[in-house]
Design goal:
The complex is a heterodimer. By secondary structure, chain A is mainly α. Chain A is built from eight helices and two strands, in the order H-H-H-H-H-H-H-E-E-H. Chain B starts with a helix and ends in a 9-residue tail after the last helix. Classes of the chains: A mainly alpha, B mainly alpha.
């Protein structure tokens, strides 16, 4: 059934229908932890996208040589290698963002979204669909992180991407939104809103 | 004294689940009944304290000694995966009854980001060996506390009339948000 899908569909499904955060509830830990500003969300999203694309490509290339019993450790080591690359890159070129993300960059290793793509898709499909699938999943991850980061940054510090939108005189920032509690509340409400829209559309048909 | 502070800080003030968002997957997935949450929490605490001790030794006597800190991520994840495997084999041989209650949770622990997060935080903050151990036990205790409180609330939520779009994950996240708000009351208690 998967083979009848076009390449574009492999890409598209990760953005909405199988969105990692909103529909599959994978990769929640970075989605909640680093979205206190839009920039951090974007950086984390792009770093994870890089890792998921590279690791899916490699996993797909070597899928015929890896014995079933050791496949999970193999995937973890491949993913850890690319995460180290991304970590060193951020540290060298974007030291401020790297400091803000802290240990959450190395923690991309245990992001179940990446493992999920390797195990359920890349290990069973050729290289090109695997890369497109990873690209779609990564894009889905990036937009959720940027939207969540923007909501929290606007409400919590009155700015977006560091640019002040609401000045202190007319708006008192809700500090709770950039604290941990705000992350849980805003992601919960975002998923609820999307569920509501989906259910209403299904009800209309 | 610092050892005690590290413990309390990891367990309550900077709770792993509610302030660092580590271990969210089991927190959202497993915590449906109090007794399974207690077992899961204990298994995680056990692996966390072992992992904290062993990665400290590896970090100091291998990675730092040979100037290889860039291998930290890869080494830590392999260490944790093999540690979980060893613990599983040991428990299966030595105590079948414990294995029956913890067994199914052990493989899940490998991909629990709280363990890797713990070892990375311990390395970042340059804890001593005893402090790392205390940090591991404290983080495990904090994870167990959060998991059990959440399970208690969810057992009650079963009987609540939740609006359809909020059913499942959104409601759990909102409850977690309330819990995080409550735990913010401990902020400023210590600064470690």
């Amino acid at each position: 059934m998967a083979s009848q899908r076009t390449l574009f569909q492999e890409f598209k499904k990760g953005i909405w229908a199988e969105n990692p955060v909103i529909k599959m509830l994978l990769g929640m830990c970075p989605a909640l932890a680093v979205t206190n500003s839009a920039v951090n969300g974007l950086a984390m999203g792009l770093a994870s996208t890089f890792v998921v694309i590279c690791s899916s490509a490699i996993v797909s290339i070597i899928r015929r040589f890896v014995p079933g019993g050791v496949r999970i450790p193999t995937y973890i080591i491949i993913i850890a290698g690319f995460v180290t690359l991304a970590d060193l890159f951020l540290r060298a070129y974007f030291p401020v963002i790297s400091k803000a993300l802290g240990p959450y960059v190395p923690l991309i290793v245990v992001n179940c979204m990446i493992m999920g793509r390797a195990e359920f898709f890349a290990s069973k499909h050729p290289v090109v669909p695997s890369i497109l699938d990873a690209l779609g999943t990564g894009t889905g991850f990036v937009w959720v992180l940027v939207v969540l980061g923007s909501i929290r940054e606007i409400l919590g510090s009155g700015s977006i991407f560091g640019v002040t939108l609401l000045s202190e005189r007319i708006y008192t920032p809700w500090v709770v939104m950039i604290l941990p509690a705000g992350a849980f509340l805003s992601l919960g409400l975002l998923i609820a809103l999307i569920n509501y829209l989906t259910q209403r559309r299904q009800g209309a048909h | 004294m610092k050892i005690l502070l590290v413990f309390i800080s990891a367990a309550i003030v900077n709770n792993f689940v509610l302030t660092y968002f580590l271990g969210i997957c089991p927190f959202l997935g497993v915590s449906k009944r109090i007794d399974t949450s207690v077992n899961m929490g204990l298994a995680t605490t056990f692996v966390m304290s072992l992992a904290a001790a062993i990665t400290w030794l590896i970090n100091h006597y291998i990675l730092i000694a040979f100037n290889l800190p860039f291998l930290q991520n890869v080494t830590y994840i392999i260490t944790i995966a093999s540690l979980v495997q060893l613990v599983e084999m040991f428990i299966r041989k030595s105590s079948p009854s414990l294995y029956r209650s913890l067994g199914i949770f052990l493989p899940l622990i490998t991909t629990n980001c709280a363990i890797l997060g713990l070892t990375l935080f311990a390395a970042l903050r340059e804890y001593s060996f005893i402090e790392s151990l205390s940090f591991g036990i404290g983080a495990g205790a904090g994870f167990t506390i959060a998991l059990v409180i959440m399970a208690g609330i969810r057992e009650e939520l079963e009987f609540a009339d939740v609006p359809a779009p909020l059913k499942g994950a959104p409601m759990t996240l909102l409850v977690a948000g309330m819990l995080a708000l409550a735990f913010m009351g401990f902020a400023g208690l210590l600064s470690v």
